[in-house]
Amino acid sequence: MLSLGAAGETAKRRNLHFLPTNRRVIRRFAGNAMRDTDERLVALLRANAREPTASLARKLGLARSTVQERIARLERQGTIKGYTVRLSDEATAGKLRAVVMISTDPKRADRVAIELNKMLEVRSLSAVAGTFDLIATVETDTPARIDQLLDRIGRANGVARTVSSIVLSEKFSR
Question: Where does a domain end: 45, 77, 109?
Answer without folding.
Answer: 77
